[in-house]
Task: structure prediction
Amino acid sequence: MKKILVTGGAGFIGSNFIKHILHCRDDIFIVNLDKLTYAGNLENLIDCVDNKNYVFIKGDIVNDELVKYIFGKYEITHVVNFAAESHVDRSILGSEIFFRTNVIGTNVLLENAKVFNVEKFVQISTDEVYGSLGKDGLFKETTPLHPNSPYSASKASADLAALAFHHTYNLPVVITRCSNNYGPYQFPEKLIPLMIINALNDKKLPVYGDGKNIRDWIFVSDHNIAVELVLERGKPGEVYNVGASSEMKNIDIIKLILEQLNKPDSLIEFVKDRPGHDRRYAIDSNKIKIEFDWKPSFKFQDALKETINWYIKNQNWWERIISGDYLQYYKSQYTDRTVI
Ligand code: NAD
Ligand code: DAU
Result:
């Protein structure tokens, strides 16, 4: 039986990962360590509460004493580190917590993984560590790191720390670098859920800059199947890019959302650009495709429809969120985001 410490498992991707694993595997016991920041939500995991192969612990990955206790008590054999401050705009408003959680927290996990001799440490990273592309080209695993935001700088730092633990101590670290995820349970500060919810509420849809920035979108379950494969078969010291070759301009996604919801384009509002806004991300996933026969199953337009329907059906989930802390953030973010 693998005993996996999943960190950040109450967030968007982590909660989808835990549900996927508990649904299809009975040889994995999961300890979910999550601080329950504004982005962590135990409602995402309501179906797992009674599962005999699952336990939740509220806590901070920076807390070395707690992390050590968990490794010992549960005889952890594997780590999947999803825990992070994950939103670029928030990192622009204040970077400290990003470096604390994403760098120091990862280091605490790495140190304990080393002491407890884990069999695999999967560091969940991001394509943003590569920086921004021009019109052509794709991010490969060998593309030099060039992070542009405090968020991506903190993620790149964690990647370097993880690789150094492999090089120096032979810790079996594997890194995934995935492109933009979307799907159920994504916190409504990110582009797709924010636009769906604003459109449902007939509120303005704030488009940064000219709306022509490009992201390479992947449905969350396709990402998580790749993470499972890397957990099983990833070679220590290696990096695996994950993406679904679904490049889209932001403005085109927003128009698709409005069209499906039967809402007018007049809801679109162009606002001041995000400082340091990366222009284009696009991923070359050939390595994971060739080595593990992974391929994405979801097409962007179909999975976007599925996602929109999920937000329509799960209004209670997001209404509770947008009436709380999120509103505070949303207001502070837009004091500086004047309409252009
Ligand atoms: P999220 O913000 O939805 O969830 C993050 C989770 O981590 C939350 O449950 C939060 O409570 C928890 N957390 C934060 N700080 C913590 C701490 N100090 N200790 C313990 N738990 C803590 O993020 P997400 O979108 O699910 O992203 C998960 C991971 O995937 C992140 O590492 C992110 O960098 C990476 N990633 C995200 C995307 C994307 O498109 N969302 C793409 C590629 C990689
Ligand atoms: O590429 C992977 C990364 O994708 C992850 O590592 C991050 O955790 C995740 O947050 C995401 O980062 P982005 O900055 O690409 O995602 P976000 O949803 O914030 O923005 C997507 C694009 O939409 C980006 O070009 C900015 C734009 N945008 C975003 C928001 C929130 C807008 O135009 N308006 C908005 O209100």
In short: The chain has a mean pLDDT of 95. Residues 2-182+219-244+279-296+327-333 form a domain with the Rossmann fold fold (CATH 3.40.50.720). The first strand starts at residue 2 and ends at 7. The chain is about 40% helix and 15% strand.
